[in-house]
Design a protein that fits this description.
Elements (H helix, E strand, L loop, with lengths): L1 H13 L13 H8 L4 E9 L6 H11 L1 H8 L5 E8 L4 E9 L1
Antiparallel strand pairs: 1-3, 2-3
Amino acid sequence: MAIARARSTDMMTRNYFGHNDPATGAHLAREAVTAAGFGRAGENIYWGGAVLADFPARVVGWFMGDAPHRANILNPNYTAIGVGILWNGQGWMLTQDFGGP
């Protein structure tokens, strides 16, 4: 959870949306998840301005309708997930970080 929350916070704080650090190009989730002891890592991110009550269904619908995001969610090699969600006054940033052996 801490990794996903930190990823959402970082994107909001530095005003970017992506898996890679805009300054260095490093894949931040992969580095953090593997540093936490996992052998594999994956990440799903979503940004939207939906009302919070509608946001979960919108996110899940989009993730499950997009092949790479769906593959992360259904990957049996991932044994852990952390979710971070943050509101900045304009929209919600949601991060799912996955880890596995």
